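Homework help board

Subject: predicted structure for assignment chain

Our instructor gave us this sequence and asked us to write out the predicted structure in token form, then describe one feature. I got the tokens but I'm not sure how to describe them. Can anyone check?
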Amino acid sequence: MIQNDLLLRTARGELTERVPVWMMRQAGRVLPQYRVVRERAGSFITLAKTPELAAEVTIQPVDAFDVDAAIIFSDILVIPEAMGLPYEMIESRGPVFPSTVRTMADLSRLRVADAESDLGYVLDAIRLTKKELNNRVPLIGFAGAPFTIFCYMTEGKGSKTFSIAKKLLYTDPDFAHALLQQITDSTIAYLQAQIRAGADLVQLFDSWAGILSPEQYRTFSLPYIKQICDSITAPADRNVPITIFAKGAFFARHEIGQLSCDVVGLDWNMDPAESRELIPNRVLQGNLDPCALYADFSQIRAEVKQMLSSFGHQHYIANLGHGIYPDVDPDKARCFVDAVKEFSVV
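My token output:
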């Protein structure tokens, strides 16, 4: 039995005594103790692939901020690597793929990932984290949504426009669908394995959803997210909530709310009241602007109070509207968490 199951109960649609709170990217560079472990590991990828170290940094924000959940330390790009397309994490540049996939012929180099063998280090980190958490709080597993992974696999690096990836949607939609399906099959197996390993909730990050038109999103993203949601929620005995966070996809909120997901994450550009109208039967998560944590303590508290007033205190999980930025003062992050707890008691 998890001692603090507030997040789980909220995600399942139950009424709760206060709003649960956690932060995307909370297990990361904002904490000085993370940077110590990262230096010890020697590289980001080594840290992510060493279960003992990944478990250590996953638990750090639970201790530092008293958040209501841990999220496993990993990366969305472990999926392309497991499919046969390795990447490098270059300091100050981000992820880079030495090879890309842009044609049907390129697809022959890939495979559907085997979660247990190709991604066993993540599953081991989940098992170890669960053991060391000792049922204090739930553990969130995650993956990247297929379109977002498609962007990196075809572009080869981060981009403001992902014009190479989008070009393929117009010039070779058959290839795009074939790659998206392969990513989807790999992601389904991966998330199901995370749940077997002990993840209490899972979240799908569609970080580049906002670069698509509404019609493209309906064609190249939503159908694949639907497959993943259906695969997670289908077993009657598996009560593991799933959250969909599609950054920038303000136009798809109603349709995302129609999926068999439990929680819909909102970025800071999505109005809470409007989102409640568009998604009336789902728990909402979000959506404080991460830059608000650069403000002074009194302003952070005021911003949190306003956010809670907009969302209400039920069927809601407090979070940032995207990941916490690495140069934020940890005390400001703690102020955010404490303010949610203070102002949301029912």
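Reply (TA_rk): Your tokens look well-formed. For the description, you could write something like this. The first helix runs from residue 6 to 11. That's the kind of observation they're looking for.
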